[in-house]
Protein backbone atom coordinates (compact mmCIF):
# COMPACT_ATOMS: atom_id res chain seq x y z
CA UNK A 1 0.00 0.00 0.00
CA UNK A 2 2.84 2.31 0.91
CA UNK A 3 4.48 1.64 -2.44
CA UNK A 4 1.27 2.53 -4.30
CA UNK A 5 1.03 5.79 -2.35
CA UNK A 6 4.58 6.82 -3.15
CA UNK A 7 4.16 6.00 -6.84
CA UNK A 8 0.97 8.06 -6.89
CA UNK A 9 2.75 10.95 -5.16
CA UNK A 10 5.48 10.96 -7.82
CA UNK A 11 2.87 10.77 -10.59
CA UNK A 12 0.97 13.76 -9.12
CA UNK A 13 4.16 15.84 -8.88
CA UNK A 14 5.05 15.07 -12.49
CA UNK A 15 1.63 15.83 -13.92
CA UNK A 16 0.97 19.01 -11.89
CA UNK A 17 1.99 22.33 -13.53
CA UNK A 18 5.06 24.00 -12.03
CA UNK A 19 4.19 26.28 -9.10
CA UNK A 20 7.38 28.24 -8.52
CA UNK A 21 9.48 27.99 -11.73
CA UNK A 22 8.68 30.13 -14.74
CA UNK A 23 8.04 28.62 -18.15
CA UNK A 24 11.15 30.45 -19.41
CA UNK A 25 13.33 28.92 -16.71
CA UNK A 26 11.99 25.45 -17.39
CA UNK A 27 12.36 25.57 -21.16
CA UNK A 28 15.74 27.30 -21.16
CA UNK A 29 16.98 25.19 -18.23
CA UNK A 30 15.72 22.07 -19.97
CA UNK A 31 17.50 23.08 -23.14
CA UNK A 32 20.81 23.72 -21.37
CA UNK A 33 20.52 20.51 -19.37
CA UNK A 34 19.80 18.70 -22.63
CA UNK A 35 22.89 20.16 -24.29
CA UNK A 36 25.01 19.22 -21.27
CA UNK A 37 23.60 15.70 -21.18
CA UNK A 38 23.95 15.12 -24.92
CA UNK A 39 27.47 16.58 -24.98
CA UNK A 40 28.45 14.45 -22.00
CA UNK A 41 26.94 11.35 -23.57
CA UNK A 42 28.75 11.90 -26.84
CA UNK A 43 32.04 12.65 -25.10
CA UNK A 44 31.74 9.45 -23.11
CA UNK A 45 30.85 7.56 -26.28
CA UNK A 46 33.84 9.00 -28.10
CA UNK A 47 36.08 8.14 -25.17
CA UNK A 48 35.14 4.47 -25.61
CA UNK A 49 35.85 4.82 -29.32
CA UNK A 50 39.58 5.39 -29.00
CA UNK A 51 42.23 2.76 -29.49
CA UNK A 52 43.68 3.56 -26.06
CA UNK A 53 40.36 2.49 -24.56
CA UNK A 54 40.22 -0.72 -26.62
CA UNK A 55 43.66 -1.86 -25.58
CA UNK A 56 43.20 -0.88 -21.95
CA UNK A 57 41.99 -4.48 -21.54
CA UNK A 58 44.93 -6.88 -21.64
CA UNK A 59 42.98 -9.30 -23.86
CA UNK A 60 42.90 -6.74 -26.66
CA UNK A 61 46.38 -5.41 -25.96
CA UNK A 62 48.18 -8.75 -26.08
CA UNK A 63 46.22 -10.51 -28.82
CA UNK A 64 44.56 -8.54 -31.63
CA UNK A 65 46.58 -5.35 -31.14
CA UNK A 66 49.94 -7.12 -31.22
CA UNK A 67 48.87 -8.89 -34.41
CA UNK A 68 47.68 -5.66 -36.00
CA UNK A 69 51.08 -4.06 -35.42
CA UNK A 70 52.69 -6.39 -37.96
CA UNK A 71 50.26 -5.59 -40.75
CA UNK A 72 49.96 -2.92 -43.42
CA UNK A 73 47.04 -1.34 -41.61
CA UNK A 74 49.45 -0.34 -38.84
CA UNK A 75 52.74 0.32 -40.59
CA UNK A 76 53.17 1.33 -44.22
CA UNK A 77 54.94 3.79 -46.50
CA UNK A 78 52.46 6.67 -46.21
CA UNK A 79 51.95 6.47 -42.46
CA UNK A 80 48.16 6.37 -42.59
CA UNK A 81 46.90 3.83 -40.14
CA UNK A 82 43.66 2.27 -39.06
CA UNK A 83 42.86 2.17 -35.36
CA UNK A 84 40.60 -0.48 -33.80
CA UNK A 85 37.31 1.52 -34.03
CA UNK A 86 37.96 2.46 -37.68
CA UNK A 87 37.18 -1.11 -38.65
CA UNK A 88 35.24 -2.47 -35.70
CA UNK A 89 32.76 0.34 -34.91
CA UNK A 90 30.29 1.56 -37.54
CA UNK A 91 30.65 5.28 -38.20
CA UNK A 92 27.01 6.33 -38.55
CA UNK A 93 25.05 6.94 -35.40
CA UNK A 94 22.33 4.26 -35.30
CA UNK A 95 24.67 1.44 -36.22
CA UNK A 96 27.25 2.75 -33.80
CA UNK A 97 24.78 2.75 -30.90
CA UNK A 98 23.62 -0.75 -31.86
CA UNK A 99 27.22 -1.95 -31.87
CA UNK A 100 27.91 -0.22 -28.55
CA UNK A 101 24.97 -2.05 -26.99
CA UNK A 102 26.27 -5.31 -28.39
CA UNK A 103 29.63 -4.50 -26.85
CA UNK A 104 28.17 -4.89 -23.39
CA UNK A 105 28.63 -8.61 -24.07
CA UNK A 106 32.33 -7.90 -24.41
CA UNK A 107 32.40 -6.17 -21.02
CA UNK A 108 30.79 -9.33 -19.62
CA UNK A 109 33.46 -11.40 -21.36
CA UNK A 110 36.19 -9.26 -19.85
CA UNK A 111 34.75 -9.41 -16.33
CA UNK A 112 34.33 -13.18 -16.45
CA UNK A 113 37.60 -13.80 -18.29
CA UNK A 114 36.27 -15.61 -21.36
CA UNK A 115 39.48 -14.83 -23.30
CA UNK A 116 41.76 -13.94 -20.40
CA UNK A 117 44.57 -16.29 -21.49
CA UNK A 118 46.23 -16.79 -24.86
CA UNK A 119 44.88 -20.36 -24.97
CA UNK A 120 41.31 -19.21 -24.39
CA UNK A 121 41.69 -16.52 -27.04
CA UNK A 122 43.11 -18.92 -29.60
CA UNK A 123 40.40 -21.49 -28.98
CA UNK A 124 37.72 -18.82 -29.48
CA UNK A 125 39.44 -17.19 -32.45
CA UNK A 126 37.22 -18.78 -35.10
CA UNK A 127 34.04 -17.72 -33.27
CA UNK A 128 35.28 -14.17 -32.78
CA UNK A 129 36.45 -13.92 -36.38
CA UNK A 130 33.10 -15.22 -37.64
CA UNK A 131 31.27 -12.48 -35.74
CA UNK A 132 33.29 -9.87 -37.64
CA UNK A 133 33.02 -11.65 -41.00
CA UNK A 134 29.25 -11.83 -40.63
CA UNK A 135 28.99 -8.19 -39.63
CA UNK A 136 31.11 -7.00 -42.57
CA UNK A 137 29.38 -9.33 -45.00
CA UNK A 138 25.97 -8.07 -43.85
CA UNK A 139 26.86 -4.37 -44.21
CA UNK A 140 28.72 -4.88 -47.51
CA UNK A 141 32.11 -4.22 -45.89
CA UNK A 142 31.04 -0.75 -44.82
CA UNK A 143 34.00 -0.16 -42.52
CA UNK A 144 36.46 -1.05 -45.30
CA UNK A 145 34.68 1.33 -47.64
CA UNK A 146 34.95 4.23 -45.22
CA UNK A 147 38.50 4.50 -46.56
CA UNK A 148 38.66 2.25 -49.64
CA UNK A 149 35.95 3.27 -52.08
CA UNK A 150 35.42 1.30 -55.23
CA UNK A 151 34.65 4.54 -57.08
CA UNK A 152 38.05 6.03 -56.29
CA UNK A 153 39.93 2.83 -56.95
CA UNK A 154 42.20 3.24 -59.96
CA UNK A 155 42.76 -0.31 -61.09
CA UNK A 156 45.36 0.74 -63.64
CA UNK A 157 47.58 1.51 -60.66
CA UNK A 158 47.06 -1.96 -59.26
CA UNK A 159 48.90 -5.14 -60.01
CA UNK A 160 47.39 -7.22 -62.81
CA UNK A 161 46.09 -9.79 -60.35
CA UNK A 162 44.40 -7.26 -58.11
CA UNK A 163 42.95 -5.31 -61.03
CA UNK A 164 41.41 -8.44 -62.54
CA UNK A 165 39.96 -9.63 -59.25
CA UNK A 166 38.45 -6.23 -58.42
CA UNK A 167 37.03 -5.79 -61.88
CA UNK A 168 35.51 -9.25 -61.96
CA UNK A 169 34.22 -9.61 -58.41
CA UNK A 170 34.09 -6.25 -56.63
CA UNK A 171 32.77 -3.93 -59.35
CA UNK A 172 30.14 -6.42 -60.41
CA UNK A 173 28.94 -6.71 -56.83
CA UNK A 174 29.47 -10.47 -56.83
CA UNK A 175 31.64 -10.27 -53.76
CA UNK A 176 32.41 -7.79 -51.05
CA UNK A 177 35.78 -6.83 -49.54
CA UNK A 178 35.68 -9.28 -46.64
CA UNK A 179 35.08 -12.26 -48.94
CA UNK A 180 38.69 -12.10 -50.14
CA UNK A 181 40.38 -9.88 -47.57
CA UNK A 182 39.98 -11.92 -44.42
CA UNK A 183 42.84 -11.93 -41.95
CA UNK A 184 44.34 -8.67 -43.21
CA UNK A 185 44.66 -7.14 -39.76
CA UNK A 186 44.75 -10.18 -37.47
CA UNK A 187 45.88 -13.78 -37.80
CA UNK A 188 43.37 -16.15 -39.33
CA UNK A 189 41.72 -18.93 -37.33
CA UNK A 190 41.52 -22.52 -38.56
CA UNK A 191 39.78 -21.99 -41.92
CA UNK A 192 38.43 -25.52 -42.34
CA UNK A 193 35.09 -25.35 -44.13
CA UNK A 194 35.17 -21.61 -44.85
CA UNK A 195 33.80 -21.11 -48.37
CA UNK A 196 36.32 -19.58 -50.80
CA UNK A 197 39.15 -20.20 -48.37
CA UNK A 198 39.47 -23.87 -47.46
CA UNK A 199 41.31 -25.63 -50.33
CA UNK A 200 39.38 -28.81 -49.54
CA UNK A 201 36.06 -26.99 -49.20
CA UNK A 202 33.07 -28.88 -50.54
CA UNK A 203 31.11 -25.76 -51.32
CA UNK A 204 31.01 -24.72 -54.99
CA UNK A 205 33.41 -21.96 -55.94
CA UNK A 206 32.16 -18.64 -57.12
CA UNK A 207 33.00 -17.23 -60.54
CA UNK A 208 32.42 -18.64 -63.98
CA UNK B 1 113.15 -28.85 -23.52
CA UNK B 2 112.73 -30.47 -26.91
CA UNK B 3 109.23 -31.53 -25.99
CA UNK B 4 108.31 -27.99 -25.02
CA UNK B 5 109.63 -26.68 -28.35
CA UNK B 6 107.58 -29.24 -30.21
CA UNK B 7 104.48 -28.27 -28.26
CA UNK B 8 105.05 -24.59 -29.07
CA UNK B 9 105.48 -25.39 -32.75
CA UNK B 10 102.25 -27.41 -32.72
CA UNK B 11 100.41 -24.58 -31.05
CA UNK B 12 101.59 -22.04 -33.62
CA UNK B 13 100.89 -24.29 -36.61
CA UNK B 14 97.10 -23.71 -36.90
CA UNK B 15 97.62 -19.96 -36.72
CA UNK B 16 100.11 -20.05 -39.59
CA UNK B 17 97.94 -22.35 -41.68
CA UNK B 18 94.95 -20.18 -40.92
CA UNK B 19 96.77 -17.07 -42.03
CA UNK B 20 97.89 -18.76 -45.22
CA UNK B 21 94.33 -19.88 -46.03
CA UNK B 22 92.81 -16.51 -45.14
CA UNK B 23 94.72 -14.93 -48.01
CA UNK B 24 92.61 -16.98 -50.46
CA UNK B 25 89.23 -16.92 -48.70
CA UNK B 26 86.76 -14.08 -49.27
CA UNK B 27 86.66 -11.34 -46.70
CA UNK B 28 83.84 -11.91 -44.27
CA UNK B 29 83.89 -8.36 -42.98
CA UNK B 30 83.25 -5.16 -44.89
CA UNK B 31 85.78 -2.49 -45.78
CA UNK B 32 85.39 -0.79 -42.41
CA UNK B 33 87.07 -2.15 -39.27
CA UNK B 34 84.75 -4.36 -37.29
CA UNK B 35 84.74 -2.00 -34.33
CA UNK B 36 82.81 0.60 -36.31
CA UNK B 37 79.09 0.33 -37.03
CA UNK B 38 78.55 1.06 -40.73
CA UNK B 39 75.21 2.43 -41.95
CA UNK B 40 72.86 -0.34 -43.05
CA UNK B 41 72.23 -0.41 -46.81
CA UNK B 42 68.70 0.51 -47.91
CA UNK B 43 66.30 -2.42 -48.17
CA UNK B 44 65.91 -3.40 -51.82
CA UNK B 45 62.43 -3.18 -53.33
CA UNK B 46 60.47 -6.36 -53.93
CA UNK B 47 59.73 -7.43 -57.48
CA UNK B 48 55.93 -7.54 -57.71
CA UNK B 49 55.25 -7.17 -61.42
CA UNK B 50 53.25 -10.43 -61.74
CA UNK B 51 55.46 -11.58 -64.64
CA UNK B 52 56.59 -15.19 -64.46
CA UNK B 53 60.35 -15.63 -64.46
CA UNK B 54 62.11 -18.37 -66.39
CA UNK B 55 63.59 -21.09 -64.21
CA UNK B 56 67.36 -21.14 -64.28
CA UNK B 57 67.32 -24.93 -64.17
CA UNK B 58 64.43 -27.35 -64.56
CA UNK B 59 64.16 -28.25 -60.87
CA UNK B 60 64.24 -24.68 -59.65
CA UNK B 61 61.20 -23.79 -57.54
CA UNK B 62 59.52 -20.96 -59.46
CA UNK B 63 59.98 -17.60 -57.77
CA UNK B 64 57.04 -15.56 -56.50
CA UNK B 65 56.41 -12.50 -58.72
CA UNK B 66 53.90 -10.80 -56.41
CA UNK B 67 53.75 -9.29 -52.93
CA UNK B 68 53.35 -11.80 -50.14
CA UNK B 69 53.25 -9.36 -47.28
CA UNK B 70 51.30 -10.70 -44.29
CA UNK B 71 50.61 -13.99 -46.06
CA UNK B 72 49.81 -16.49 -43.35
CA UNK B 73 51.25 -19.99 -43.59
CA UNK B 74 50.66 -21.83 -40.35
CA UNK B 75 48.69 -24.63 -38.75
CA UNK B 76 45.46 -22.68 -39.20
CA UNK B 77 45.73 -21.65 -42.79
CA UNK B 78 47.92 -21.39 -45.87
CA UNK B 79 47.19 -18.16 -47.72
CA UNK B 80 48.97 -19.28 -50.90
CA UNK B 81 46.46 -22.09 -51.33
CA UNK B 82 43.53 -19.68 -51.47
CA UNK B 83 44.66 -19.00 -55.06
CA UNK B 84 47.09 -21.76 -56.04
CA UNK B 85 45.16 -24.82 -54.84
CA UNK B 86 43.40 -26.81 -57.55
CA UNK B 87 39.98 -25.66 -56.35
CA UNK B 88 40.65 -21.95 -56.70
CA UNK B 89 42.82 -21.68 -59.81
CA UNK B 90 39.89 -20.95 -62.07
CA UNK B 91 38.71 -17.92 -60.16
CA UNK B 92 42.20 -16.69 -59.36
CA UNK B 93 43.88 -17.61 -62.68
CA UNK B 94 46.96 -18.52 -60.65
CA UNK B 95 49.16 -21.48 -61.60
CA UNK B 96 48.12 -24.64 -59.76
CA UNK B 97 50.43 -26.18 -57.19
CA UNK B 98 52.41 -28.81 -59.10
CA UNK B 99 51.07 -32.35 -58.94
CA UNK B 100 54.54 -33.37 -57.73
CA UNK B 101 53.58 -31.68 -54.48
CA UNK B 102 50.82 -34.24 -53.93
CA UNK B 103 53.36 -37.00 -53.36
CA UNK B 104 54.32 -37.88 -49.81
CA UNK B 105 57.81 -39.05 -48.95
CA UNK B 106 56.91 -42.72 -49.39
CA UNK B 107 56.00 -41.93 -52.99
CA UNK B 108 52.25 -42.27 -52.49
CA UNK B 109 50.12 -39.90 -54.52
CA UNK B 110 47.67 -38.11 -52.23
CA UNK B 111 44.45 -36.33 -53.16
CA UNK B 112 45.80 -32.93 -52.22
CA UNK B 113 48.94 -31.14 -51.13
CA UNK B 114 51.27 -33.42 -49.16
CA UNK B 115 52.00 -32.15 -45.66
CA UNK B 116 55.73 -32.01 -46.37
CA UNK B 117 55.06 -29.45 -49.11
CA UNK B 118 52.85 -27.24 -46.96
CA UNK B 119 55.34 -24.46 -46.19
CA UNK B 120 55.56 -22.86 -49.64
CA UNK B 121 58.13 -20.25 -48.69
CA UNK B 122 60.77 -22.81 -47.74
CA UNK B 123 61.43 -23.15 -51.47
CA UNK B 124 59.45 -20.46 -53.32
CA UNK B 125 60.72 -17.00 -52.58
CA UNK B 126 60.19 -13.43 -53.67
CA UNK B 127 62.87 -11.57 -55.59
CA UNK B 128 64.23 -8.11 -54.93
CA UNK B 129 66.06 -5.69 -57.20
CA UNK B 130 69.23 -5.96 -55.08
CA UNK B 131 72.44 -6.13 -57.13
CA UNK B 132 74.26 -9.45 -56.64
CA UNK B 133 76.93 -9.29 -53.92
CA UNK B 134 79.36 -11.36 -55.95
CA UNK B 135 79.72 -11.94 -59.66
CA UNK B 136 77.55 -14.86 -60.74
CA UNK B 137 79.22 -17.32 -63.09
CA UNK B 138 76.27 -19.68 -63.37
CA UNK B 139 75.75 -21.05 -66.87
CA UNK B 140 72.50 -22.46 -68.12
CA UNK B 141 72.40 -26.19 -68.80
CA UNK B 142 71.45 -25.49 -72.43
CA UNK B 143 74.56 -23.36 -72.86
CA UNK B 144 76.64 -26.27 -71.60
CA UNK B 145 74.85 -28.92 -73.66
CA UNK B 146 75.13 -26.99 -76.92
CA UNK B 147 78.18 -24.75 -76.85
CA UNK B 148 78.23 -21.59 -79.00
CA UNK B 149 80.30 -23.30 -81.71
CA UNK B 150 77.45 -25.75 -82.37
CA UNK B 151 79.71 -28.82 -81.94
CA UNK B 152 79.04 -31.61 -79.51
What is the secondary structure topology, with strand pairs?
The complex is a heterodimer of chains A (208) and B (152).
Chain A lengths: L1 H14 L7 H25 L3 H4 L3 H5 L1 H5 L15 H5 L4 H10 L1 H8 L6 H21 L3 H4 L14 H11 L6 H4 L28
Chain B lengths: L1 H21 L58 H4 L4 H4 L48 H5 L7
Could you explain the architecture of this structure?
The complex is a heterodimer of chains A (208) and B (152). Chain A has helices at 2-15, 23-47, 51-54, 58-62, 64-68, 84-88, 93-102, 104-111, 118-138, 142-145, 160-170, 177-180. The mean pLDDT of chain A is 91. The radius of gyration of chain A is 24 Å and the shape is elongated. Chain A has a domain at 50-180: Multiheme cytochrome fold. The longest helix of chain A has 25 residues, at 23-47. Chain A is mainly alpha-helical and 208 residues long. Chain B has 152 residues and is mostly helical. The interface between A and B is medium-sized, with 24 and 27 residues.
Amino acid sequence: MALRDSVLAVWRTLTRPATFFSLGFLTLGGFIAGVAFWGGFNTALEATNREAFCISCHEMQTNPYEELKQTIHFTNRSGVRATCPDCHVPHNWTDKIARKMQASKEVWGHLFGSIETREKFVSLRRTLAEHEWHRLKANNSLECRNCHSAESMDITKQGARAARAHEQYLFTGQMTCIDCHKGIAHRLPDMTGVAQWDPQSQQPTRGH
Amino acid sequence: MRLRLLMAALAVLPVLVGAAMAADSPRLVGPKPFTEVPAAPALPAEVTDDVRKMRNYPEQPPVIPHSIRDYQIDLNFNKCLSCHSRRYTEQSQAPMVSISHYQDREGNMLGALAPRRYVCTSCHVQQTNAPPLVDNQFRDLDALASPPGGGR
